[in-house]
Amino acid sequence: MAENLETLTACPVCSGNTFTPFISCKDYTVSRGTFKIVSCGTCGFVATSPRPTEAEAYKYYQSEDYISHSNTRKGLINKVYAWVRNYSIKKKEQLVTTTLGLSPETRRGKRLLDHGCGTGEFLDYCQKHGWDTMGLEPGEEARKLAISNYGLKVIKEVEINLLEEKRFDAITLWHVLEHVYPLNERIQKLKQLLKDDGVLIVAVPNHNTAEEKNTENFGRPTMCQGIYGTLTKPA
Ligand SMILES: [Zn+2]
Asked: What is the mean pLDDT of the chain?
């Protein structure tokens, strides 16, 4: 699918330059291609390598399946999916509220950026529960759906550089950071965008779980799983 693949020469986290094979897995969602996952010899970070170049990565996100199981609720499977998704959304919002030490009353008007908001279901819930929300979504189709379905404010990836510093109380990345190419730069940017007492909440796949070691599941977006890390902005 991608015409250009690039091999990692430096770890996106620690700049280490030794890698060992970790696992191979097949992309069942879009390309049906097999990808190799390597592990950094210095810090243990795992990443796809070779991987599509950033310019071609969008091709892997253009499927009905990937656009957040969009908006159909027909059939039992989709009903179950919608129920699980709604439960998950509620839990995520509770996590943001409690991490900030807020209550349903005091969260009103607090500013939340959801980085990689997809079609906007999480942000829609947050907006309806008092948050002042903004989404960032690189995928054009998903971005348009979030705006037209829920009336959300959703920016393109490049527009992140136009936002003023110390704007947000919370920034969330739900199974998104593993798709970001300029990893360290983006984290630095998100730190700038947080208020001094703001929080960054990140969920990424946990490659140490038995389920993720099953190659068919590796790297798939999974609900309510993975590592949830929260960081208070360093001084
Ligand atoms: Zn590393």
From this structure: 82
